[in-house]
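To whoever is on call:

I kicked off a structure prediction for a single chain this morning and the downstream step that reads the tokens threw a length-mismatch warning. I double-checked the sequence; it's 266 residues and nothing unusual in it as far as I can see. Pasting both halves so you can look.
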Amino acid sequence: MPNRIERKMQQLKEKKEKAFITYMTAGLPDMEGCKSLIRAQEEAGVDVLELGIPFSDPVADGPVIQAASYKSIQQGTSLKKVFALMREVRSEGIEAPILFMMYYNTVFHYGIDAFVADCIQSGVDGLIIPDLPLEEQGELQKALEQDGAPLLIQLVSPVSAGRVPQILEGARGFVYCVSGMGVTGQSGNFHREVIRYLAAVKAQSQIPVMMGFGIHKASDVEPMKDVIDGAIVGSHFIQFMEKSRYAPEAAQAYCRTFKEELNTSA
């Protein structure tokens, strides 16, 4: 049975639109403010929201997201509180697909079965876990084999090359293509052969291909628009929200503009 992510991807395909996906750190500026930002983004037409679960020792996050995570942890954000936030936004009618981007230590410490059960109960649609390689996904994937469980979104990078078919076998939702080497937030530092790499992934993928890392505005992905199915903005969106003091109206305006520009002559 398709979940919210798959339904959204199908709708976009039928409308011939590119997906716009945002990343924000859970718990900022606070829990109520976070809820307001989620609602503002849904109203602006964001297709999928990534909610970053703060972690003290991230490996894929650049300085912007690290700082945001630290601030959120200092304010007392925990996985249990984010599950409570998810239950609230779902009970208030938010239907946008929402993923958790997190590290496996958090899942393991919470308890895999308990974690998956709370994902189902609170309406989490997908998981992105950068430090969980394909060879170590078995235990979690088995726990996710139940109705209503979130999808485990697969990541590939410019060095994945020959592993791409293996990584994408049975993958659902979309594939997250890391556009460059290193951590998030490296503005415009795209791999020199990024278009060729994205095209190779697209040729082998049965699911939509999303590009992330280092994207600020829709024009950043203009050269790749014929290849990718959507774009993901994280570090820049966090910086933008900090500068605008987490005003929902500002987030909404940014997201609406990006979505429109992304789909101009798409």
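Update from on-call: the warning came from a stale cache, not from the record. Cleared it. Sanity check on the structure: The longest strand covers residues 19-25.
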